[in-house]
């Protein structure tokens, strides 16, 4: 039986208990990297864009590895956010291929592009758990995992809309807590759909 959305969020809160500072610290590191890239892009636009494209895959992989570690209570260090650079080439290739496939689907219409993004959403998780997997294998495995789960994934994101509105007040500071919360919940979703899930907790709303 699939876990409910409230159960997935409850698992995330349980994983984050005692780890909020670390989770927010990882998110701040990602913001800092984005700010540095933004500064470079402001000063030297072409160079900034190139750097952004080159390292986005590694950053995405590192963040997913970090929050998946928190979800599984593996006590990852904040430096795990940089772990994606250890697989820089593979992370970049995955980022490029996902972007390319999603773009091609978007050419048909916006909705197919969104569906494609959901279809490939688990590829970084798969690469994190299987470092030796091929890029297309990770993408295809994500497609298999998301068969029958794309709507669940979509609705799971919608359950955070109310929190997103509240987090914007004041000055968006609430996103320091919300973004890690969403990321850890998504990690639990991955563990759920792949059959590696934690027992549900009674703390849910």
UniProtKB/TrEMBL annotation:
Alphabetic keyword roster: Membrane, Transmembrane, Transmembrane helix
Pfam families in alphabetical order: DUF975
Top-rank taxon: Bacteria
InterPro entries the record matches: DUF975
Membrane spanning stretches: 20-44, 50-71, 92-118, 154-178
PANTHER family associated with the record: MEMBRANE PROTEIN, MEMBRANE PROTEIN-RELATED
Protein name: DUF975 family protein
Taxonomic source organism: Paenibacillus glycanilyticus
């Amino acid at each position: 039986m699939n876990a409910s959305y409230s159960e997935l969020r409850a698992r995330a809160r349980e994983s984050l208990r005692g780890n909020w500072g670390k989770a927010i610290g990882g998110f701040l590191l990602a913001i800092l990297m984005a700010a540095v890239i933004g500064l470079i892009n402001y000063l030297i636009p072409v160079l900034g864009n190139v750097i952004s494209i080159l390292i986005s895959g590694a950053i995405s992989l590192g963040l997913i590895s970090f929050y998946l570690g928190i979800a599984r209570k593996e006590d990852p260090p904040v430096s795990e956010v940089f772990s994606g650079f250890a697989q820089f080439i593979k992370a970049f290739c995955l980022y490029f291929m996902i972007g390319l496939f999603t773009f091609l689907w978007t050419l048909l219409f916006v909705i197919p592009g969104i569906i494609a993004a959901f279809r490939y959403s688990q590829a970084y998780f798969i690469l994190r758990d299987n470092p030796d997997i091929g890029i297309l294998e990770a993408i295809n495995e994500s497609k298999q995992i998301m068969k029958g789960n794309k709507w669940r994934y979509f609705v799971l994101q919608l359950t955070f809309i109310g929190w997103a509105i509240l987090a914007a007040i004041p000055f968006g500071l609430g996103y320091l807590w919300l973004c890690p919360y969403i990321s850890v919940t998504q990690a639990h979703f991955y563990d759920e759909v792949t059959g590696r899930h934690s027992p549900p907790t009674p703390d849910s709303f």
